[in-house]
Amino acid sequence: MLDKSVPARMEYMDGVLEAFRGYLEELDCPEEIALRLEIALEELFTNIASYAYEREPGQVRLSCRLNPDGKELEMEVEDRGAAFNPLDRAGPDFDLPIGERPVGGLGIYMVRQFVDKMEYEYRNGCNILRLKKRILT
């Protein structure tokens, strides 16, 4: 299990990613899947560090574990910032020319593509985003 909590500031992201990478290596996660999960975590951390807290940055917490069958990774990314459900955001409209597309939304779209399941919950003043990805067959 991995459980790491750090200030939601960009200078802490590398340490979180390093710990996550090490955890995935311990699990013998295939390299292609590990890379996609790292990119997803980087996107989520960046969004929290950039937008979740209005004044002083709060904390961001990452917890990871294998499910009981040992094949699916379960991740939770938590913050106590402003309530925000990323699953409510519409995906990007790829039919629009690039210059006409609204800014934002591409990162969450990408995260959705890299995991098998995403769930959001706002509980006790905390945003909780759960991600699941089958990493072993």
In short:
The protein is of the alpha+beta class and 137 residues long. It has helices at 13-26, 31-52, 106-114; strands at residues 2-7, 59-66, 72-79, 117-123, 126-134.
3D structure, described in words:
- With 137 residues, this protein is α+β, with helices and mostly antiparallel strands.
- The chain has one domain (2-134): Heat Shock Protein 90.
- It is 33% helix and 28% strand.
- The protein has three helices and five strands; from the N terminus they run E-H-H-E-E-H-E-E.
- It has helices at 13-26, 31-52, 106-114; strands at 2-7, 59-66, 72-79, 117-123, 126-134.
- The chain has a five-stranded antiparallel β-sheet, with helices on one face.
- Helix 1 packs antiparallel against helix 2 and helix 2 runs antiparallel to helix 3 (106-114).
- It starts with a strand and ends with a strand.
Q: What is the ordering of alpha helices and beta strands?
A: EHHEEHEE
Corresponding CATH superfamily:
Histidine kinase-like ATPase, C-terminal domain
Helical run tally: 3
Distance between the termini: 20 Å
The CATH topology assignment is: Heat Shock Protein 90
Task: Give the averaged pLDDT, no decimals.
Answer: 91
Low-confidence stretches: none
Give the overall form.
globular
Please write the CATH class name: Alpha Beta
